Known about the structure:
This protein is of the alpha/beta class. The chain contains five helices and six strands; from the N terminus they run αβαβαβαβαββ.
Amino acid sequence: MHRVAPVFLAALLLSASGCATETTTILVVRHAEKILNAGDDPHLSDAGNARAQELAKVAENAHIRSVYVTQYQRTKETAAPFLAAHSDIAVRAVPVNISGVKNYPKELASTILSADRGRTVLVVSHSNIVPALVQELAHVKVPDIPDNEFSRLYIIIVRRGQPPALIAARYGAP
């Protein structure tokens, strides 16, 4: 399995170097693997549960203060192992309205940057939302996420008065 501890070290160093300014760090991932052909709101598969455990290990020392999920089980279950070890962290369920999905990344980015300014947050979302959310937060276009890919991890560091920084990494098995 790929480890991203050096990536977090780099992210934390970048965050620390901006101590004089307010720094918001956002970790963005797609939900882990889901059970296929299991309806509109499937649970995670065994591989998905293993990936969720890996995410918990990767994020354990990132000083996360809030976790954003959608209304779907797969996002909540992806965050669950991390949350089980950090019961003091706020969970913010921000439902996706299918008819308004185009505006969702912009609205979520605005919510994060106002409600959690100066903090580190984790966002667990969906393949059709993650690239647009990263673009909203980092002002960088990232590739679309194929249906069979679950390992991408984006770290966006936002400092007042400076352009955002983006680190693209992977976690767990590809």
